[in-house]
Sequence to fold (460 residues):
Amino acid sequence: MRGRVVIIDDDQDLLRLLEVTLAGEGFEVEAFTTAERAVKSDITRADVVVSDINLPGMTGIELCARLASEAPQLPVIVMTAFSDIRTAVGALRAGAYDYIIKPIDTEGLMVRLDRFIGERRNREEIRRLREVVKGESGFEGLMGSSKSMLEVYELINRVASSEASVLATGESGTGKELVARALHARSRRAEGPFIPLNCAAVPEQLLESELFGHAKGAFTDAKADRPGLMTKANGGTLFLDEIGELPVTMQPKLLRALEERVVRPVGADKELPIDIRVVAATNRDLEDQIEQGAFREDLFYRVNVITVALPPLRSRGRDALTLAQHFLDRFAAQSERDVTGFTAPAAERLMAYSWPGNVRELRNCMERSVALARGQEVGVEDLPARVRDFQASHVVVAGLDPTELVPMDEVERRYILHVMEAVNGNKSSAAKILGLDRKTLYRKLERYEVRDRHAPKASS
Fold:
């Protein structure tokens, strides 16, 4: 159903024509010859009201004024003769959303109906979001109710009490550290420490000391014994973020520590026992790195006992609006600004955007939008240009024009390229979506000369 429409006109032939036409196009229609009867029927259940201006009894202008007072969110379109435009302007001032001139162009009317129904539903969704966000505490910091996120919550609950190592995968900004913290908070180690380490943020020459600690005199600045993060995490959880960036020289040392449950500080003679659970995270395709010799296969299987795959924000449906409202509320409170929600067009842009930076990008977008908002609602003009101007891309493989038809190889090449873009170059994910094994995908990528735009550039 495209929406509920109430039509009011004392011309019964026109009334019947509009009723039949709109019903045939998927609208639920109620028709009345007077405004009084429409009001008594609980007119506010409608999505849009279409009313003639010149009615017996309560006029169309009087109806607009009444609805503007009692149901300001209910759009009203008035119908008028060309010679009565001034009266239509009066209806607009009384609260009508638009007017249409008789004889009625039904196509033009349906365009208006779809627009106003869509805008009203967006406004209702935004109000609903405010209530949802107020009542939703989230799942240990994670938020969203899409099917893919509910599956993530369910998996976290199932494995939290286990001692098995977990690998959180997903694009940058999807919330992998929140997964690690949720696993820790719901585990038997919750009272112990949660120690995070970003493997990409520590210089290679310092990483061993950071992880395993060092003994006094181990190097020039080692003036005292210093425990490493693996020792500090005893009784708790060690979170190894960006494990795909771990230098190859460090990987066998980490593997041995995890296998033997002991660490040897740099420069020390004795090994120290450790009691930790490891949660690792990566936005890299580790299986691809294994094939390139950049990541050890045995370490991969050691940290990847259980995989928690976080979906990108673009695949989470209305979670984007839920999160946007959550961040908007947070930043409005922090900055003491009276910003409460979004205009319907702004909400549409937020939903349409692909969010390549995922939740992190959305958070930054909301911080900016709250700072720039001109009123109580964030409008389209308050959003970053990349969100305002975003146009979704589609893969076109053929058209009706015979000159546009392409060979099957070209269809396959375009679709593989589209899938690779959608998964940010993750070949394992692309192979699963395409129903191919990895070697077959590699051969096709070479054959079609599809370059991995997401691969790290070699340093010069």
